[in-house]
Design brief:
- With about 90 residues, this protein is mostly beta strands.
- It has a domain at about 20-75: Urease, subunit C, domain 1 (Roll), CATH 2.30.40.
- The protein has no helices and five strands.
- Strands 1, 2, 3, 4 and 5 form a five-stranded mixed beta sheet that branches.
- The protein starts with about 25 loop residues before the first strand and ends in a 12-residue tail after the last strand.
Length: about 90
C-alpha cells in the first residue's frame, strides 16, 4: 500500500524553476507516519521520497530513481509538516 499526502502525484508534471536542478531524495526510517486517505498509520521500516518540496511517495519499495538517500536510522519520520518553527504575529 502506498500512502500519499494529497492523492496521486503526477511526477512528470512537477514544475522546476528555471535554472534549478530538481533532485529526488529518499529518506528511510524505522517508523514513518503515513495517511492512507482515511486515517494515519505508523509504517515500520518505511520510506518517504520527495522531489524539490513535494512529497511523491510514502510507503515501502519506491521503484523510481533517486539522486540522494538519507538513512534516518531508528527515527520516527512524520512527512508533510509545514514549518514547525513558524511564528504567528
Amino acid at each position: 500500500m502506498v500512502f500519499r499526502a494529497h492523492g496521486r502525484v503526477d511526477e512528470a508534471n512537477l514544475a522546476t524553476p528555471a535554472g534549478s536542478i530538481m533532485t529526488t531524495t529518499r529518506v528511510k526510517a524505522r517508523y514513518v507516519s503515513g495517511y492512507d486517505g482515511k486515517t494515519h498509520r505508523m509504517l515500520e521500516d518505511a520510506e518517504v521520497v520527495y522531489r524539490g518540496d513535494t512529497i511523491i511517495f510514502v510507503g515501502h519499495g519506491y521503484e523510481g530513481d533517486v539522486d540522494q538517500e538519507i538513512d534516518g536510522g531508528n527515527a520516527i519520520l512524520g512527512p508533510g509538516f509545514i514549518d514547525l518553527n513558524a511564528r504567528c504575529v
